[in-house]
């Protein structure tokens, strides 16, 4: 397998593990990018972007990054908070009055960012293509009764997070979520990262290769098993009531790529993910582009909820919009995927295994994207092996549970 790009000698093990992903772990096409003190130290890509045509994964290849998008959406909210335009402790109705229906008037912006809002899924049946109709989904969520009292528990808002946070951003700025992200983040930083992909970039998109649950050794996480056997459950509502978006192949459609879906719809590559996090690893700014004041970073990186996730059914830890290190390796194999990072790091995984994060202590940013999905929602062995190699290169050690520390 031809691996292209550059890798500093200090991080040679990252290249070794990237190569092993192709040789031993079933990787098809992927990219990994790491910056240290703002400078790229790893920029690698390789493999095949499209199995049907054998189109190679190139430097320009981009791919669906699923829930890594949530971090981009959360960043938009924190940019506004850092500027004093959005109060994260204020009720959502201050910015979105219609949201107060059905007893949601006391829901705070921070509840939405930390998956405590009680709206992990729509309960009214959504029509085909609903996720491509922003007004339809946001109106349905605003009118809905929460599935638990906001602020009393947390449960992954896997598909609704982007509509909820994105509508707050829209109400504050007058711009759609994708427009605001491009104006304030991807444009100034020169990132290959879109929420609403221009049609002329479609030829650069790698095709997603979903998990085949019939293959030997594939273990579906409890979330998916519950959804398929109990469609009325929270996992069932989240994964089945989305207007067909989660149907096989739909996420690779032009309609899906064109839509602005701030929970799951981002299109990027490793360089784009690491580039978004680069300013956050450096006090909030990079190369003259300030995303947030340094004083905003503790709100982005500090844990606000932890414990059993009411939707996913396994432990999770969240800051305001970002995932934190979670060790689930002690769980049964089908639910053991987590995220093993130092406590200072914050970021987000994407379904199937993609990842982006910032670590202000080590001043690194990291991005990993791929087209062949693993079976879970968090980080599988391919991405974790790259993360582990980065921290070994920095002289970190692992605790008994696998979390990295200096």
Automatic annotation (TrEMBL):
Domain called Beta-lactamase-related: residue spans: 18-376
A single GO molecular function term of this UniProt record: hydrolase activity
Question: Does DNA-binding show up as a keyword for this record?
Answer: no
> Sorted alphabetically, which Gene3D superfamilies does this protein's record hold?
DD-peptidase/beta-lactamase superfamily
Write out the transmembrane intervals: none
Q: Which Pfam families match?
A: Beta-lactamase
Keyword vocabulary terms for this entry: Hydrolase
Protein name, please? Serine hydrolase domain-containing protein
Provide the organism lineage as a comma list.
Answer: Bacteria, Bacillati, Actinomycetota, Actinomycetes, Pseudonocardiales
């Amino acid at each position: 397998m031809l691996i292209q790009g550059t890798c500093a000698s200090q991080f040679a093990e990252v290249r070794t593990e990237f190569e092993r992903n192709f040789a031993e772990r079933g990787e098809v096409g992927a990219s990994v990018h790491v910056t240290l003190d703002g400078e790229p130290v790893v920029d690698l890509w390789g493999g095949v972007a499209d199995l049907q045509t054998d189109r190679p994964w190139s430097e320009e290849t981009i791919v669906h990054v699923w829930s890594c998008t949530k971090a981009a959406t959360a960043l938009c909210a924190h940019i506004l908070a850092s500027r004093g335009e959005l109060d994260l402790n204020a009720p959502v109705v201050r910015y979105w009055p219609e949201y107060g229906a059905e007893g949601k008037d006391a829901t705070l912006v921070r509840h939405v960012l930390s998956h405590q809002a009680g709206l992990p899924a729509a309960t009214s049946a959504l029509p085909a293509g609903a996720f491509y109709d922003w007004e339809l989904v946001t109106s349905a969520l605003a009118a809905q009764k929460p599935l638990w009292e906001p602020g009393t528990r947390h449960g992954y808002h896997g598909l609704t997070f982007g509509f909820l946070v994105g509508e707050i951003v829209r109400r504050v700025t007058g711009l759609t979520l994708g427009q605001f992200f491009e104006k304030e983040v991807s444009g100034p930083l020169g990132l290959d990262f879109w929420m609403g992909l221009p049609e002329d970039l479609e030829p650069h998109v790698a095709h997603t290769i979903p998990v085949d649950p019939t293959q030997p050794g594939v273990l579906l996480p409890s979330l998916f098993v519950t959804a398929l056997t109990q469609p009325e459950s929270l996992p069932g509502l989240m994964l089945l009531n989305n207007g067909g978006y989660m149907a096989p192949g739909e996420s690779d459609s032009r309609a899906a790529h064109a839509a602005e879906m701030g929970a799951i719809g981002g299109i990027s590559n490793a360089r784009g993910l690491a580039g978004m996090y680069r300013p956050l690893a450096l006090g909030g700014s990079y190369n003259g582009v300030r995303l947030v004041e340094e004083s905003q970073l503790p709100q982005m990186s500090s844990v606000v909820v932890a414990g059993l996730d009411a939707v996913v059914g396994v432990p999770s830890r969240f800051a305001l919009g970002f995932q934190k290190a979670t060790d689930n390796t002690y769980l049964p194999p089908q639910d053991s995927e987590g995220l093993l990072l130092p406590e200072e790091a914050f970021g987000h995984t994407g379904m199937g295994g993609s990842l982006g994060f910032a670590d202000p202590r080590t001043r690194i940013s990291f991005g990993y994207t791929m087209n062949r999905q693993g079976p879970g929602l968090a980080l599988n062995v391919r991405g974790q092996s790259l993360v582990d190699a980065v921290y070994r290169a920095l002289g970190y050690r692992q605790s008994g549970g696998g979390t990295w520390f200096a």
